[in-house]
From TrEMBL:
UniProt xrefs under InterPro entries: Carboh/pur_kinase_PfkB_CS, PfkB_Carbo_kinase, PfkB_dom, Ribo/fructo_kinase, Ribokinase-like
Organism for this UniProt entry: Ensete ventricosum
PROSITE patterns attached to this UniProt entry: PFKB_KINASES_1 (PS00583), PFKB_KINASES_2 (PS00584)
UniProtKB keywords: ATP-binding, Carbohydrate metabolism, Kinase, Nucleotide-binding, Transferase
Protein name: fructokinase
UniProt pathway: Glycan biosynthesis; starch biosynthesis
Top-rank EC class of the record's enzyme: transferase
Amino acid sequence: MGEKEGGEAGLVVSFGEMLIDFVPDVAGVSLAESRAFLKAPGGAPANVAVAVARLGGRSAFVGKFGDDEFGHMLVDILEKNGVDVDGVLFDPHARTALAFVTLKRNGEREFMFYRNPSADMLLTESELNLSLIKRAKIFHYGSISLISEPCRSAHLAAMRAAKEAGALLSYDPNARLPLWPSEEAARAGIKSIWTEADFIKISDEEVAFLTQDDPQSEEVVMSLWSDGLKLLVVTDGEKGCRYFTKDFKGQVPGYRVNTVDTTGAGDAFLGALLISIANDTSLFQDEGKLREALKVANACGAICTTRKGAIPAIPTMPAATELVAKGK
């Protein structure tokens, strides 16, 4: 246990965007071809917040919504799922963000965003609920909140406040290229806060994007290592995940399931892992404990792909531990 660790036992505070995904009611069609769309709550940091709560952890969300029907619907979803919304604000002048998502035949996705500018981008430093942020055991965020001001400054201030209060910083870059001005800007923006994090979770595709190299190569992955990191986890889809710490590294296989939609799988994985870390930070040094936590996280990610949507598909802990037990 580090002497600087602060925060309330087990509290995970997630920061960033929550939006509505409009998903075609049939897979494998373009947005233009689609006749009808289903409304699905989305936004990676919010998905993580719900995953933490649904899996039995303590969860809070910090972010801004439009004072519109969609914004209130989303905050209602957070509350119904047991997420603390003391860090949530409504903007009377801006809309809640929307994204139209194409589900390709293989379950992968393409995005078209409506954020010009949306309420989540307009969160200012003075609007942050710092007392909530400072109570975090883990402060979790992505990179979308870094794209434009004033949200970028609010994001950096929230990270500083959490770190000074002794929280662990958790980062999932969640690269969404259409939202950045260019690929170069995305790489630079994502890397701009890289060395601040205690823990980073990244997908194999994001490793390829950031390094412009082979994500299966350990040397390539290790080019993303920074000295402040306690844990780097690379998710490899159905193959499972790889983990790297100062002292050990390895791979934990995934679970074979009938995949319908990959949306939110990484967020379910992450929610499970953050609960484990928030409850016992010794797993950064204890490979056996870390591997057990990653098995459960893999199971949560796998189960999440068996249903459409992110939040509806996030499992409960008993379902995940049952899959882990079956997989032995």
